[in-house]
Amino acid sequence: MRRRILAVALAASCSLIAAPALAQNAEPAAAAPTVTVVVTNSRKADLVQLQAAESGSASWKKVLGALKAGKQVPAQVPQAYNCRVNLHATFADGQSMDASDVDVCSQKTLNLTD
Predict the structure, then answer these.
(1) What is the phi/psi pair of residue 25, to 5°?
(2) Which residue(s) pair with 77 in the sheet?
């Protein structure tokens, strides 16, 4: 008799735990707007990472990972309210490159050069 009561109590407690998880999925979060920019790595070294931040902000976000030298790929760059972002690229040879105040809404290509 004791085992049956315990089993019913556990089942009831499990449903109480699961109920809040269902409520959290009611509405998906809105995604931040992005702009697609084609990145070409024209350097001799591989790109390790490309980061972007709204101009004047110190909040960097990774927009692209590794990209071999001589290759190109589209990247999703966060769209700032005025379309202007700062970009920071790091390379496998230890070098880095910065571009400030780039208008990603009108400039849809980014060519990384030596």
Answers:
(1) -90, 15
(2) 35
CA distance 96 to 58: 17
Distance CA 78, CA 63 (A): 8
* Cβ(68)–Cβ(46) below 8 Å: yes
Strand partners, 106: none
CA-based end-to-end distance of the chain: 79
Q: Are 65 and 78 in contact (CB under 8 A)?
A: no
Whether the CB-CB separation of 35 and 87 falls below 8 Å is answered with: no
**pLDDT tens digit sequence for 74-95:** 999 988 888 999 999 999 999 9
pLDDT for res 67: 97
Under the banding of pLDDT at 50, 70 and 90, the label for residue 25 is low
CA distance 96 to 45: 11
Q: Rounded to an integer, what distance in angstroms lies between the CA atom of residue 98 and that of residue 4?
A: 68
